[in-house]
Design goal:
This protein has 15 helices and 8 strands. With 397 residues, it is α/β, with parallel strands linked by helices. Strands 5-2-1-6-7-8 form a 6-stranded parallel sheet, with helices on both faces. It has a two-stranded antiparallel sheet with strand order 3-4. The chain starts with a helix and ends with a helix. It comes from Hevea brasiliensis (Para rubber tree).
Length: 397
């Protein structure tokens, strides 16, 4: 009877103890419940939650600035947007592109290349043949805004101008006349429609001035600046902007699109400041390419060859930087500082040696002073010890 009662009490205490322990674990460490639902890598274990310890450090990349001299090197034979985008893609191989600037006077933006003139002339001839019914397009002209199809280009253009052009102008007038919150609401409401119109109008309407160079470069992300019509105004403004970027250390690599030899001094100054320079121009043996670290032509930019070669160029730059760190350079100030330290150390050693010599001399002076008792002992030692027998008979007699 006694043993049965004891066993039952032991089982009850065991159950109570287990319940108390489970409640303590649930209250103190509630995140342990999630461990059964989580899976960790066997190599990392629980420390895999902290990814910062396992990730490799991110290497800083160079900042790249693009400076485009449109007066000297406009994209005449290439579409402006395509040329600007390819240039940005090639420059991104040297680092992160942070600045994209283009300078020109108003004549550069109003100029129409010969290729564009021939295309417009062919388009007018095709319009005349379509109006007479001589030819018919294989595929209809599709409106990018409403989706209507036309088999006559002039009718398609009239439709776009009269309907979509007027709607776009109404939206602009409403936004200009509105103020405050109403203006913000109108901009957000018409944002998609206005963007859709801008994307469609590029291939339909002909720009009133030039061939849309400034608009296409802005669409590609470039900051376009129009300077005065004075001679060399664009070169001076572009040179000042490059110097300002170098002074403020906003870029470590400069990409110059020009063949003008007036920029040789700026490139030399950039190299003196340990900056990398890249030139894009059509003159293979020009003055700029001889000074710059790397040079490419427009054909290499558009074909993607420059982006492939940029990998080897960057690798060569890294090797040069490594060699510069390893090579010895003479620094007069550092040499003077080291010489002064060596002279001070030599003076300190000579002073310490002199002090040691003086201490030895002082110790010798003290040793020269002998008491009378010590002198008698020394005489006795010289005569012989008391236990030694004197074998000389003359001395005994």
């Amino acid at each position: 009877m006694f043993w049965s009662v004891a066993v039952s009490m032991f089982l009850k205490f065991r159950v109570i103890f287990q319940s108390i322990q489970s409640t303590q674990l649930n209250t103190l460490i509630p995140c342990l419940r999630l461990l059964r639902y989580c899976h960790f890598d066997s190599k990392l274990g629980l420390n895999s939650l902290n990814h910062t310890s396992t990730l490799a450090p991110i290497k800083p990349q160079n900042n790249v600035a693009i400076f485009w001299d449109l007066d000297n090197k406009p994209p005449n034979s290439f579409p402006p947007y395509e040329a600007a985008f390819k240039l940005k893609t090639a420059a991104s191989s040297f680092g992160v592109v942070t600045y994209m600037v283009a300078y020109a006077n108003r004549h550069a933006f109003s100029y129409v290349p010969q290729v564009v003139k021939e295309q417009r002339k062919e388009r007018r001839l095709l319009n005349q043949l379509e109006n007479k019914g001589v030819i018919k397009p294989i595929e209809p002209y599709l409106c990018g805004v409403c989706g209507r199809k036309f088999y006559n280009n002039e009718k398609f253009m009239n439709h776009f101008k009269q309907i979509h052009g007027r709607e776009h102008q109404k939206r602009l007038n409403q936004i200009e006349s509105a103020r405050g919150k109403r203006r913000v609401k109108l901009v957000s409401r018409y944002a998609m429609k206005m963007q859709k119109y801008k994307n469609a109008v590029r291939s339909v309407l002909t720009p009133k001035v030039g061939y849309g160079l400034a608009d296409e470069l802005k669409r590609a992300g470039y900051w376009v600046r129009t300077v005065s019509d004075k001679p060399q105004a664009a070169d001076v403004a572009l040179r000042d902007h490059m110097v300002d970027v170098m002074d403020k250390r906003r870029a470590e690599c400069l990409v110059l699109v020009s063949d003008d030899s007036d920029f040789v001094g700026v490139l030399k100054e950039a190299k003196l400041r340990c900056m990398k320079t890249v030139v894009v121009g059509d003159i293979n043996d020009g003055a700029l390419k001889r000074v710059a670290d790397a040079g490419f032509s427009w054909q290499e930019i558009l074909r993607g060859k420059a982006k492939k070669e940029a990998v080897s160029v960057v690798g060569r730059w890294k090797d040069q930087d490594t060699l510069k760190r390893l090579e010895w350079t003479y620094n007069p100030e550092e040499e003077k500082r080291l010489c002064s330290k060596v002279a001070a150390f030599d003076n300190y050693e000579s002073d310490s040696n002199y002090d040691e010599d003086e201490d030895e001399n002082e110790d010798g002076d003290f040793e020269g002073i002998i008491d009378e008792g010590e002198a008698d002992g020394m005489e006795k030692d010289a005569a012989g010890a008391w236990w030694e027998l004197n074998s000389d008979p003359e001395a005994t007699s």
